Amino acid sequence: MLAENGAWWVPDIIERMDSKWEGDHATRKFGPAVFRSGLTMRPSEYVNRGVFYAASVMGPTEIERRYQIGVDNLMWGSDYPHPEGTWPNTREWLTERFARVPQDETRRILGLTAAQLYHFDLNALAPHVERVGPTVADLHGVEIA
């Protein structure tokens, strides 16, 4: 888990690691064993199944690059109560960032991934989620059935 670092940089690092593993121009002279020794998968595969990013005050770049970062690996962070965080304007930040993001991806990034990662009891949390929101209508302007 990487927290409070944003995640805009993740796709570039992953691409670079995979490139080295594949034996790009700069690494061919060392031979593939140097970068593949002990690895049965590409570095991106290890990262995608085991690294998560709590991207505090997530910017538009993280939203735009969410597929390269990994929708299932990306988690919103408001950085509350720090002054550089989104509070007291968190709902506005969320609406601005997620209005055009599919609802299922929004749910994952805003809470479901964290709930799964930390083994939260979603039934126990439901009354609190209902009380504090935000709702689908808040973020996407529509109600769900």
Task: Give me a quick take on this structure.
This protein is mainly alpha-helical and 145 residues long.
Structure description:
- The chain has one domain (2-140): Metal-dependent hydrolases (TIM Barrel), CATH 3.20.20.140.
- Helix content is 52%, strand content 7%.
- It is built from nine helices and three strands.
- It has helices at residues 10-22, 32-36, 43-50, 60-64, 66-69, 90-98, 103-117, 122-132, 136-140; strands spanning 2-3, 53-56, 74-77.
- The model has no long low-confidence stretch (mean pLDDT 87).
Which key phrases capture this entry?
single chain, 145 residues, mainly alpha, TIM Barrel, three-stranded parallel beta sheet, 9 helices, 52% helix
Question: What does the average pLDDT come to?
Answer: 87
CATH architecture: Alpha-Beta Barrel
Largest sheet: 3 strands, parallel
Q: Which parts are unreliable, with pLDDT below 50 for 5 consecutive residues or more?
A: none
Spatial gap, N to C terminus: 34 Å
Going by CATH, what is the homologous superfamily?
Metal-dependent hydrolases
* Count of strand segments: 3
CATH class reads Alpha Beta
Computed CA radius of gyration, to the nearest angstrom: 18 Å
Structural class by helix and strand composition: mainly alpha
